[in-house]
Amino acid sequence: MLKNLYKIIEPSGNDSSKLSSLYDIAMLICIIASMIPLAVKSDSIILNIIDKITVTVFIIDYILRLITAKQKLNKGVKSYFLYPLQPMAIIDLLSILPSLIPINAGFKVLRLFRIVKTFKVFRSFKIFRYSKNVERLVEVLKKQSKSLMAVLSMAVFYVLFTALVMFNIEPDTFNNFFDAIYWATISLTSVG
Description:
The chain is mostly helical. It is built from ten helices and no strands.
């Protein structure tokens, strides 16, 4: 039974069942719907209901993934302890966490926990699990990592070299070297 459940909840490929494809579509809809309350910034009852429903779906999804961890990781009972440490499991948990912590505006100590609300942004990362384009992008990044590191090294060298030159040529323009680095970065990354 867990093997069949695992086949349904894992993102489907070309050879997946209809049930697995429907699950993927339903999860994508929930992920997109969960972004609406974040983007609108309103205390509307409808937005609160959308948030509660999507969080409930995310909690159920997390529990199902935890239950089927043995099928995913193939490490026996250790799988149940290793699964929560997986990157996507951490993203899942961080996207759920803000809705589970009750925040009372009356207590100053609890106001510190409001930063946890920002974890709702992690819901958008959940889409990586279901997007084939992101999968392809990660594959390309892995294959071309040496070339990309060479470009990154050249960019860092360019920024530092240009910042050093400009800092020495026009010392009155920049308050410190970090301002020169900022100027060089902006010049490299924009029309600037």
